[in-house]
Amino acid sequence: MTEIPMGGPGIPPAPGTPGVQPAPDEILVAFAEPADQNRLTVLVRIILAIPQLVVLWVLSIAAEVVALICWFAALFTGRLPAGLAEFQVGYLRWATRVYAYLFLLTDVYPPFELADADYPVRLRAEPGLLNRLAVLFRIILVIPAWIVSAVLTYGLSFLVMFVTWLIVLIAGRMPRPLHEALAAAVRYQARVTGYFLMLTARYPGGLFGDPATSALGVDPAGGGFPPGPAGQAAPRAPAGAGWGQPGPDQPAFGQFEYGQPGTGEPGVSQPGAGEPAVGQPGYGAAGAGYGGSAGYGQPGTGYGQPAPVPAGYPAAAGYGQPATPVRWLGGDQPWRLVLSRTAKRLVALFLVLGVLLIVGYVAVITVATAGSNGVTRAEATISVEGAFATLSGTLSGFDSKVAACQGKLSCVNKVDKQMSVAFGTFGQNINGISMPSAASSAAAGRVRSDANQASAGFLRLSEVTSAAQYQQVVVSTGLESLLRRFDTDYRTLGTTLGVH
Questions:
Q1: CA distance 228 to 14
Q2: What's the pLDDT tens digit per position in 241-259?
Q3: Residues with Cβ within 8 Å of residue 80, at least 6 apart in sequence
């Protein structure tokens, strides 16, 4: 996969190029500043993105398979195989461009390629050495970052993106603070995915942007394009005589076309004002009237005057107007993303909304699971009626069995023992039945309590040794009122289950 050289007009320089310090082991993403967008494409953005999403889905399946292979390879060698790492970087780059397009960070349609491209969202990752222990537990280590990413995704879903869509649709441009906040969210998600794919050993960070100054105290507004969030700015151009300072639209030091003709002293290896630049036709050849003719040092007849140039550009003949560079959020340090205070508050708002949405989602699922629903109610009703059927058979034969005893206490004790066992079994069965709602659970609890008390009362009756003692136990346990209450509570349970 061939990488497009970085550092041309509107393109951040590649880390490691001359004059640029090596990049840290981190997923780097550069975002262009907010620009005007076509309202029609904004209106149908989700439809336009469908082909990209289909391809990205296919690529994600391939990336998962490759990740498994890379995990084994990194576990033994401490690094990813070069070809597979290149594919994973391409997949991550593709995904980042698609998400940036969906989040309305750019109106430019993403290219269908894994390689780097001249696009308003650029991503660089340079997989290196990995800690084998961290590779072994990578799926566990990534969980905290994955949770933050999931909360962020929930916070961005629907409400935020719908409001963002309306703003861009009406205004034709995204406000810069919102643009910065969404860029930070996309970058963080890219870093989480990149860490999971083992494209970096650095744990995902930078959700609230990069520090306002670099780690070495270099102002991010310094000249040149440093490599990344912790890089040192490239040196500024010397302020000696004849060195023109770049104008408002002129490439900065270290960029393509900086230091081209017109930046040296006239007559010292550099063409003077009105002379052709190095490599231009006529350079080094004497024109009419030059070098021995009258008016030495003056341009001859027909020698063209320098074309008008913007203010601040060196006035050298042949110095053409440079291509309009992309204006990056990081300015002359495009790999950096320094958020404004408003943008940081928006990111915090995304997280808060994500937490609220997840809590609400869990609450709805809990209520829906515990709430009334026909199938669950029917299942509970069948289970309760099945448990009661066994008890009902014992209850229906109680009077006839007692009458058949003809006053023999030992015989009545056996019948009471059967009733105790029947009520105890029913209570256990009710306890094992899941109820579809809080009301039915409470009703089942009352029925279970009544059954257990009745079981204990009949057990005491089965142990008495005289008729007087029998009557005393019946009164003390309130068994007759308990059985009436059991009947009432059982009917209430049926009502809560929808049985009339």
A1: 10
A2: 333 344 444 444 344 444 4
A3: 70, 73, 74, 88, 127, 130, 198, 199
Strand partners, 30: 122
Domain membership flag for residue 117: yes
Q: 152 and 128 in contact (C-beta within 8 Å)?
A: no
Range of the domain at 408: 373-496
Number of domains within the chain: 2
**At 309, which helix (H) or strand (E)?**
none
Instruction: Output the pTM of the full model.
Output: 0.57
183 shares a domain with 201: yes
Does some domain include residue 101?
A: yes
Instruction: Give domain status of residue 155, yes or no.
Output: yes
In one letter, which amino acid is 495?
T
Q: Which 3 state secondary structure label does DSSP give 183?
A: helix
- Domain-embedded: residue 343: yes
* Residues contacting 477, CB < 8 A, separation 6+: 453, 456, 457, 460
Q: Tell which residue, 161, 440, 180, 178, has the closest CA to residue 336.
A: 180
Pairwise pLDDT comparison (148 vs 282), residue with the higher score: 148
